[in-house]
Amino acid sequence: MGYVPVKGGTEAIEASIKRLKYERLKGQEIIAINTIRSTMRGMVDQVMSESSLYSPYLAALSIKQAEGSMEEAVFLMRAHRSTLPRNYYSQTVEAETMLVERRISASFKDIPGGQLLGPTYDYTHRLLDFNLIEENPTENQQWLQNYKQELQHIEPFKELKYFPKVVEHLREEGLFEVYEADNTPPIDITKQNLDFPTSRSARLQVLTRGQTGAVTSLGYASLRGYGQVHPTVGEVRVGSVPIYVEHPNEVEHGAEDEFYIGEIKVTEVESFVPVKVKNENNEDELEFEIGYGICYGQNETKAIAMSILDQCLEHTNSDFPTHDEEFVLLHIDSVESTGFISHLKLPHYVTFQSKLDSIRQVKKGVQKNES
Amino acid sequence: MKAETHFAFFDEGSKKEIRRAIMKAVAIPGYQVPFASREMPIARGWGTGGLQITLSIIGKSDVLKVIDQGADESVNAVSIKKLVHETTGVELTDRTEDADIIQSRHRIPEIALTKEQIIVLQVPTPEPLRGVEAREYITKRMHSEYDYSGAWLILFEQIMKYGKTATAADHPVYVNHRYVMAPSPIPRFDNPKIHQSDALILLGAGREKKIYAVPPYTNVESLAFDDYPFTVESFEGMHCHLCSGADVFLDELIDHTTGETIYQCNDTSYCMERMNENVNEKEKAEVEGSYA
Lengths: 371, 292
Fold this sequence. Notes:
Chain A is an alpha+beta fold and 371 residues long.
């Protein structure tokens, strides 16, 4: 009688949860939260980004609890997020203030401030490193020491320099329109349901917490042919940005009264997309627009894909699904898509019975007509 | 760093926000009120809309019943009950008449609900027009313009193709002569129970982020044409093999020994009640045992 006998659900669930715990424990190895934090950077970053909760510690805990399952870990974090009261909104972050670890441009070789590769997998050869099987702490320590010594020979700049945005350079040349800063307070999609047509602030929020795979796939689809956006990456930067909140009670606000509450690591992408615009004489002219992508941690593929989708959704007068905001925004959330797909495992006895009845009635009716 | 969960999981601010959406839903029967659906500790599509309603309206003295497709002991119903119980400590029950709040997936109990009770239905697809129009922006406009030709067209096309309307569960209804509403995938059999219900009916769609309601004593009509009237699932000549109940929604089962099709009440607590009615305590235990 299937898995919904009239009795026994409670016992079955308990047994199942026990079995699940057994699966996690049976290998008799315990992974420390700190081990996850310091060795699984990519995963921690991805979990924080998809769950839109910036906490490497909790992300590591969720990964441990979820036995490494991405969708489960994100799910745990999101559910935890629901229990947290949200007391403040941060001040706008200016990405120029980023402490840059990595910054490249695919548009120009020689960008003001220079290209900085930083840590990236891009130029590694994806060959399994069998040496890691026998990794040992003494050797690692030795390597770290040598590395630090190497760095000592490099002379640091006298003062802290901020990297200007690549796009500024082009704005000066008149290739990009100079937009006035839009200081409309962003809507908070976790407190307000999406209202279509959406505002850009809402779109960017949905995109940045989208499932990495889903955002990448749709961005790819657009790039490959199911869309009209083919960008050049103007700038990818990875680094930490400071977060400030306003004093909640002061009447007068000034930057010096703001509280620094910490920093977050983000990946930021600005893609340059050529678009046709009409000039004063109603002639077609080419101009560049920017597709914007940003996400928690280092996840460049997602941020670039996001910048494509951002630009797609700025131009909705296209038949491609990647330009349809409901199609893109309502289907890329990890918790929503995995939840609804997995709900198909729930019993559908009543609904199926109803369908059976409907089909039987139709069949009866058809036979009657024929006779 | 161990954190205790707040009463009924949510922070009070979230609960208040959801209750406001509920109030609006009650004030505009059948209208889908958008709300900022929270992520819950159970999966989207597994009853998070219903659960958010339940958690935001439940008080310490309430008694809760949760059913999934008619069954109190269905795994997901058990899981939801467990979560609410762990975060609130409220009393749980299987008996429909003892419950203050009944959260249900795809069924309305067989015995009539009272004005003291609230039934919370879990909804997968709150938009009755989704089948004719994929875009939310458009369907919202269709509702506001009272444009329900699409809903009628679905039924009309079925009549053209099959010679009769062929809806299964989730047959659309008119609420208070204004909004066309998806009653959630309850069987057609349960549609008439929404009409002039004594109990408040709240419907929650967590993934789609909508809450809507049918207040008590509201007119609710299932969509149908005069010459093709609305019909419910037919269980003519069939009865429950356990309690011999008829005129209830029945599950179709296969007898493992004889291979014959047998029927059983879908509403498990209704069935149990009936079986217990005429037996003494000793036999009662036996019956419950044989039910497993």
